[in-house]
Amino acid sequence: MRIPTALRDAAALAVRELGVAASATALTTAALRATLEAVVMQAALDAHYEQHPQARPDLGDLAVAAAELDGHPLAVEPERLRRAAVEIVAKHPDASPDDVLLWAEARALSAA
Amino acid sequence: MSRIVVLDNEAVQALQNPAHPKHRRVVSLAQVVASRKRRAATVEVAVPTAVRVEAGWDRTSPEWVFPNRLRIADVPLDAVRASTAAAIRHRTEVSVADAHLGAVIQSTSAGQQITVVTSDLGDMRLVAGDRDITVVAI
């Protein structure tokens, strides 16, 4: 596998200076594994959504799930997150669940 | 910081069955994990093998093809975890599967964050001992 020199050097630097992995090879392997796992998971989920459309989560569902996974304080306010998802998707149709969390958090702070 | 997401019996059953009332909720969690992996976050989903037994998850059965494809790792009940699980069960009187889940929590490395997806918050707090966990109640 050929890796661009600048990327290889950056990986070596990150290992040496930041200790992000035991070696540049370990760092590369972990990143490749994570990407492949994500691709395989997404393919399985997409196939499942095609077969069971009602199982496809909307942005509000995903924002709630993201908050719950992290133990985010807004996880206990799912309706606030769902409202934030509706608001943000009107202007940013490609918003992510983490964008929704950030938006909801900002709204909560400004309301306080 | 890495995170492990551990599933309990009901989370596994909800994931497997599209007609389960909590199916979409557990699928949402899997979708968030997939999206985060795509962004190179270190997050994995795991199931203790005793939980898999309790839920009836046979990896060779076509009924379980969807969960099988989601890269959910088995955590075996090895000798060390069996001893930990036995102590948890003796102390708390939870099921074998929940005791195994507790052993998985307690054997997780100190720097790793733990999320448990469960229908039984109380038992999870009991089996986690002094480990700090995030509980997703389904």
Can you summarize this structure?
Chain A is an all-alpha fold.
Labels describing this entry:
heterodimer; A: mainly alpha; B: 138 residues; alpha/beta; Rossmann fold; 5-stranded parallel β-sheet; 5 strands
SSE blueprint and pairings:
The complex is a heterodimer of chains A (112) and B (138).
Chain A: H1 5-18, H2 24-51, H3 59-70, H4 78-91, H5 97-111
Helix pairs in contact in A: 3-4, 3-5, 4-5
Chain B: E1 3-7, H1 9-16, H2 23-38, E2 43-48, H3 49-55, H4 65-68, E3 72-75, H5 79-92, H6 96-107, E4 113-118, H7 121-128, E5 134-137
Helix pairs in contact in B: 1-2, 1-3, 3-6, 5-6, 6-7
Written account of the structure:
The complex is a heterodimer of chains A (112) and B (138). The model of chain A has no long low-confidence stretch (mean pLDDT 94). Chain A has two domains: 50 residues, no CATH class; 55 residues. Chain A contains five helices and no strands. Helices cover 74% and strands 0% of the residues of chain A. Chain B is α/β, with parallel strands linked by helices. Chain B has one domain: 5'-nuclease (Rossmann fold, 3-Layer(aba) Sandwich), CATH 3.40.50. Chain B is built from seven helices and five strands, in the order βααβααβααβαβ. At the A-B interface, helix 2 and helix 3 of A face helix 2 of B.
